[in-house]
């Protein structure tokens, strides 16, 4: 096998099969067990399933704390977790630019396999397309996933007083990407928080009946995702600036670059909307059983119906946090 | 305009200095600063130090700021 | 805040003229802490927002040259020229976002066959660091790095606003970091010549609070009107002499064109003859049309406190945050943008 | 809404939601019914499900007989059909190049909605990413699909003598794409055969027990796909050149361009491997009930175990048909 | 090398001709052909007619070819 | 040869020297219909497969110029130079596949700021149509279209093969479409000078069958050795005079370099002085290294019938269909490629 992806790796013939056999099957799991045919057939006794999809186009493809492959699996497992689902099966569709390094592809596939193994999920169907040099940016991955929804989880209407928890420090993925994308010579220990949150569904099982909504604050960050929840809930969200967990280094980098960390993606954090009064119990569970030592109750829903998200600032002011409007780039103003 | 953050010089190397901002390290240009020295605090703007920070004033203000914030947290804020 | 009559007060308008102050006000939520009759206005303090359409058009025209790469602070990406912004027009690898002017030097060395043009925008805070870069490049290369300047001076635009007879500004928060470079004394004219309460202040929430209350004390007559430097930790009276030297070394002044405002005498910093070889304008034939057609944007009136955003006929129609025409809509905290997003009052 | 896709249409904020509301939801189905949230939850009584994914990168995006949207849905429905499954739900992940025409996107989304409606399937989860101008070639679409596998269908081992049927004329999609991609000034009525084959699963229901394998000859065409089947079956495939259905115009264009139509994609045809002796009955069903008037029995499995595909030629010779090895481009030799 | 297909000229327009090949229409260059005429058969190679086809021979051969193929189909082939 | 006993027959080797014959043989499955002792060999008849590495390297070097676009027949895309093929090296919109040389003209008009270079490869079938295009472009433009030629002549390579003392070829199928242009008589020398049975034949399965059986009749002594034109519907004795005129008008001969074979005198067609301005070689400084290092490829021996593919030490190791070194592996029906894929015999 040569060391660069060629167009014929994607034409469905000999080379495509070679890629599937030599890279994907070997990386994804117990060799031979999984068969990446066009359609995968399975039987299930579960009556309630969750189904999701996401495409991943992150640049750079390898970043501090992960790579596009890890992200592609974690992202889909996390979207399943938002539905209270434990993951069952995942699909993986690759769009690769001609000339992409095959060793890099192996590394990406291995990352995918590792996350799957750790979370007891299998990649059972896949697809590989190769496009001409210049027609894509290295590699794009789409994953979809099917999971079994926990019987305990039945999201219901959000009411004023319901509490909002974040399971860890914010903006780590977004900051890691910024540092790597702009090749900024800033020395930090920052890594993407990219990880799968499927375990939350089991770990929090006894409290699931009190969780009204889960959502992973990815693109657009905590601020944008809370806006979506507020819109859907019909009430305002009030956050407490003092409670928002953020690591000093992430804070520093964001100040240096003039970026608001509330708008940067997390890839291993969950926002939980919790029935009023249950926040501290869940927080305790998160800290003790899920290893989420930085989990925080960051705010709650109020009775106002403008569907705004705002924050009580450190000095006692109030600040509205609209949805993300434009790209986050280093600024001087 | 003119986002700038306070940062501390760790070491100086000609036109450049290695600085630390809340635990984050960086090499910046200090050619606008007269005799930059390790231990100096400077204002960092777009990769350059634009001015030295007066350390006495800085410490003094930090104390005041912290007091005010603690006041706020104790509910005496506005 | 000290003692004051609580009844219905006359509206007090305090202006700041630094984008970072605008941001700090927004982020600290300080408006919520002020009495209702105190309004904080954002003046023309974001050098990007006030960059004239013609400049953006010129930068876009440079992209027609296949061997040109633009390097820019991220702020410039979404600001529109007559028709497009750089982010809409750029091809892959034709526009690079940089954190520092020195990154443009790195870029030029990385692409020796290309001509890298740095979009040199900013006030006097940024002017010396770009000036230092220009001097370095002039002396040591690389030869494929040019500068397209739209650097602006703070004093002329302040005088322009303050001279307006209908100006309804009651106090001014002077730009802290411009003052770091030029010195606190550089803004004393605001009080001495225009008899306006003015403070130089920093960017922490507490700095801002202190600045506003100090101005209110003066406006309400509890203290005499006087010019105060409340940011002494970063602002010396005479500023940073070395930084000022770089400004004088590299630039001369010229009339400047401000979006939504128009021509302001002596408000631009451009390269001196000695550094012409590094000026993108002299290398390429860029005709920045300084659009003499009357600007449709009413920002001037809004900044001067004469009009409310909704009184502009463009407001919400041809001018939205997504498709902004003037500085008040471009800046995410500008008067028009804020009014568009949150309506008149929310809390 | 402006008329070009911008980066912020893909950042997960306001503009992304606008796109979802104004384009996808309106095009996909009865407005408001479908909610494109991160995860879709459904209940099913079916115990046997099929799951598949494919990415679509076709160039040009609009071609004679279809567009990338129609293709993206048909492709996934057809892969479900190969598993004997009637489609239930589909996911749609878009990767769009900044500057892509919004009206074109609408048209693509409408195509997707139409195929779905006609086949009783719903797009229930989706994702939209926008990449920088120059980082993708207009638009890429990934779909995945879930279907209910017919109880009648239980693929079993292929044996010598088993018959091979194709449900219609070959190479029409591939030829249509060639004509449009190379902008060849050749006047023909050729259109892509792109269409959904889900109906085959119901139409052929009574004969499903005699169908041992179904496969849609897409990338690599009939020759490549039969090689895959031969490899899997362990026997040789013998085709009859005289029986291979091909329209005269497709034949003409391929001769002019020096391309072998056996290697060009079909997007609305199915290859059926049928238990020995049942071919003609199934052919009759296909012709009478499925409207496959050009369906043909094109060959059978032999007892030889080289796993080769070869063809009895018109003059009685034999020709081996290996898997596709390199791109199909107009040639002069 | 030298893939070429027989095609029929439908009309001539200067250096170019409109031709039909098994129902497929095309504009081709005929400048290598002496007095190309509607009804002529030509050999088409990469967008150009490279030679006229002798119509008598062509018809004759077609008849033979068809006979041979029919023979094959009737099982008398090799 | 002449008369011979029917028992164990000596192997009979019939060569064709046209890629389209190679394809026709493969597609018709005719090998299956022939007696086992009759072998059909593919000679150096695919102008793309025999294109020298140095030519591909030269074309790739042109891509270093950002304003160059290459236009090529699809056949050339996957043929390797010393290291890479065009399909591996091309950037987006830098290499266009065309169906006709006239498409290159269209391309040049579509990109007036670029220089379009057409990769002019082929034998005498293609030479006149490219010649006509060159003459048209010379007279009417566009001026941004150049030609990089690797056009080859059939007669010199045939003589090269036939002159080989160890040549084991028993009969020759002459290239039908080269004969359409040059005339059937252009190949009479094969029989007259080398005493080898030879036929001009067409490309239908029946044409091929007829050609092979006619040669076997001669080889087996059932008919006298004679040169036959079995493709009279498309091949006149003197060929197409107008097409030959274009060849003479535009080209002159020169020594040619053949991949896996080496230098063959007078086997190349290159532009005459008059058309130099359209020659990519004279516009760009392309040094096609005619690799004097001994070629590792044994195709010459294989084509001449002296060696079997597996006797080449490159076979299956550094030379595979995916990564072909010589013409026999490049052509999907070449001896090495076929042997690699199907082993020695399959039916
Ligand atoms: S609405 Fe737009 S055009 Fe009108 S004043 Fe505001 S920024 Fe200017
Ligand atoms: S195996 Fe490769 S190198 Fe050897 S003769 Fe064949 S083509 Fe040439
Ligand atoms: Mg599939
Ligand atoms: Mg997601
Ligand atoms: Mg999500
Ligand atoms: Mg697939
Ligand atoms: Mg400032
Ligand atoms: Mg999702
Ligand atoms: Mg498929
Ligand atoms: Mg998504
Ligand atoms: Mg398929
Ligand atoms: Mg020929």
TrEMBL record, chains A, D:
The family assignment reads: Belongs to the HypE family.
Q: Which NCBIfam families match?
A: hypE
The record's listing under InterPro entries reads: HypE (IPR011854), PurM-like_C_dom (IPR010918), PurM-like_C_sf (IPR036676), PurM-like_N (IPR016188), PurM-like_N_sf (IPR036921)
Annotated PurM-like C-terminal domain residues = 159-305
Residue intervals of the PurM-like N-terminal domain? 39-149
Q: What is the top-level taxon of the source organism? A: Bacteria
Name assigned to this protein: Hydrogenase expression/formation protein HypE
Transmembrane feature ranges: none
Sorted alphabetically, the Gene Ontology BP terms of this entry are: protein maturation
From TrEMBL, chains B, E:
Q: Which GO terms describe its molecular function?
A: carbon dioxide binding; iron ion binding
A single Pfam family it belongs to is HupF_HypC
Gene3D superfamilies tied to this protein: 2.30.30.140
PROSITE patterns (alphabetical) = HUPF_HYPC (PS01097)
Q: Which GO terms describe its biological process?
A: protein maturation
UniProt-listed NCBIfam families: hypC_hupF (TIGR00074)
Write out the similarity annotation: Belongs to the HupF/HypC family.
* Name of the protein in question: Hydrogenase expression/formation protein HypC
From TrEMBL, chains C, F:
Which Pfam families does the entry link to? HypD
Q: Has UniProt tagged this entry with the keyword Metal-binding?
A: yes
Spans through the membrane: none
InterPro entries given for it?
Answer: Hyd_form_HypD, HypD_1, HypD_2_sf
Q: Which keywords belong to this entry?
A: Iron, Metal-binding
Q: Which Gene3D superfamilies match?
A: 6.10.20.100, HypD, alpha/beta domain 1 (3.40.50.11750)
Q: Name one GO biological process term.
A: protein maturation
MF term (GO), any: carbon monoxide binding
Q: Which family does it belong to?
A: Belongs to the HypD family.
Q: What is this protein called?
A: Hydrogenase isoenzymes formation protein HypD
Q: Which organism was this protein described from?
A: Anaerotignum propionicum DSM 1682
Which gene carries the instructions for this protein?
hypD
């Amino acid at each position: 096998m040569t060391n660069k992806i060629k167009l014929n790796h994607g034409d469905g013939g000999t080379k495509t099969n070679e890629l599937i056999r030599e890279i994907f099957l070997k990386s994804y799991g117990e060799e031979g067990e999984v068969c990446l045919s066009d359609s995968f057939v399975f039987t299930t006794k579960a009556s309630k399933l969750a189904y999701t999809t996401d495409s991943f186009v992150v640049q750079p493809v390898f970043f501090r704390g992960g790579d596009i492959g890890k992200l592609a699996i974690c992202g889909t497992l996390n979207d399943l977790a938002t539905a209270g689902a434990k993951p069952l099966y995942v699909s993986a569709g690759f769009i690769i630019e001609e000339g992409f390094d095959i060793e890099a592809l192996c590394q990406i596939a291995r990352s995918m396999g590792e996350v799957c193994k750790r979370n007891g999920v299998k990649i059972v169907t896949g697809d590989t397309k190769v496009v001409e040099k210049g027609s894509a940016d290295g590699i794009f991955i789409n994953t979809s996933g099917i999971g079994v929804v926990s019987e305990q989880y039945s999201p219901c209407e959000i009411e004023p007083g319901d509490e909002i928890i974040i399971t860890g420090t914010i903006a780590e993925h977004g900051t890691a990407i910024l540092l790597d994308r702009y090749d900024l010579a800033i020395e930090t220990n920052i890594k993407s928080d990219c990880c799968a949150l499927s375990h939350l569904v089991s770990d929090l099982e006894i409290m699931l009946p009190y969780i009204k909504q889960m959502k992973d604050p990815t693109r657009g960050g905590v601020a944008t995702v809370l806006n979506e929840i507020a819109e859907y809930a019909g009430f305002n969200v009030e956050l407490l600036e003092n409670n928002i967990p953020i690591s000093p280094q992430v804070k520093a980098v964001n100040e240096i670059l003039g970026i608001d960390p509330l708008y940067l993606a997390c890839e291993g954090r969950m926002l939980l909307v919790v029935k009023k009064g249950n926040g501290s119990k869940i927080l305790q569970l998160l800290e003790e059983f899920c290893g989420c030592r930085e989990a925080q109750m960051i705010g709650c829903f109020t009775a106002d119906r403008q569907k705004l998200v705002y924050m009580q600032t450190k000095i006692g002011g109030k600040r509205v946090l609209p949805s993300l409007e434009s790209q986050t780039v280093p600024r001087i103003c | 305009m003119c986002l700038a953050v306070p940062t501390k010089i760790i070491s100086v190397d000609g036109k450049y200095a290695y600085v630390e901002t809340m635990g984050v390290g960086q090499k910046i240009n200090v050619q606008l600063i007269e005799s930059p020295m390790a231990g100096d605090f400077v204002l960092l703007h777009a990769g350059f130090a634009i001015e030295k920070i007066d350390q006495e004033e800085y410490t003094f203000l930090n104390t005041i700021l912290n007091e005010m914030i603690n006041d706020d947290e104790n509910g005496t804020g506005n | 805040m000290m003692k004051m009559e609580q009844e219905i007060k006359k509206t007090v308008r305090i202006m700041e003229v630094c984008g970072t102050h605008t941001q700090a006000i927004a982020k600290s939520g300080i408006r919520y802490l002020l009495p209702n009759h105190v309004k904080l206005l954002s003046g023309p303090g974001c050098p990007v927002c006030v960059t004239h359409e013609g400049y953006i058009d010129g930068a876009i025209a440079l992209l027609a040259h296949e061997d040109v790469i633009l390097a820019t602070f991220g702020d410039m990406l979404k600001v529109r020229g007559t028709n497009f912004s750089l982010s809409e027009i750029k091809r892959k690898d034709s526009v690079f976002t940089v954190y520092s002017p020195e990154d443009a030097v790195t870029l030029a060395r990385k692409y020796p066959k290309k001509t890298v043009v740095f979009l040199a925008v900013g006030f006097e805070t940024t002017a010396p660091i770009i000036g230092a870069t220009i001097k370095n490049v002039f002396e040591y290369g690389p030869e494929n790095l040019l500068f397209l300047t739209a650097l602006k001076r703070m004093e002329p635009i302040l005088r322009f606003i303050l001279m307006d007879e209908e100006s309804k500004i009651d106090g001014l928060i002077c730009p802290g970091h411009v003052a770091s470079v030029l010195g606190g004394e550089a803004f004393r004219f605001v009080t001495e010549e225009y008899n306006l309460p003015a403070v130089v202040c920093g960017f922490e929430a507490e700095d801002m609070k202190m600045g506003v209350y100090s101005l209110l004390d003066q406006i309400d007559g509890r203290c005499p009107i006087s010019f105060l430097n409340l940011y002494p930790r970063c602002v010396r009276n005479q500023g940073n002499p070395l930084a000022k030297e770089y400004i004088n070394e590299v630039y001369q002044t010229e009339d400047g064109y401000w979006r939504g405002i128009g021509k302001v005498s002596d408000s631009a910093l451009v390269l001196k003859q000695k550094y012409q070889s590094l000026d993108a304008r002299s290398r390429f034939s860029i005709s920045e049309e300084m659009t003499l057609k009357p600007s449709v944007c009413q920002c001037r009136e809004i900044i001067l406190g004469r009009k409310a955003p909704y009184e502009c006929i463009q407001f919400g129609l041809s001018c939205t945050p997504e498709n902004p025409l003037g500085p008040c809509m471009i800046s995410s905290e500008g008067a028009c943008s804020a009014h568009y997003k949150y309506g008149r009052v929310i809390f």
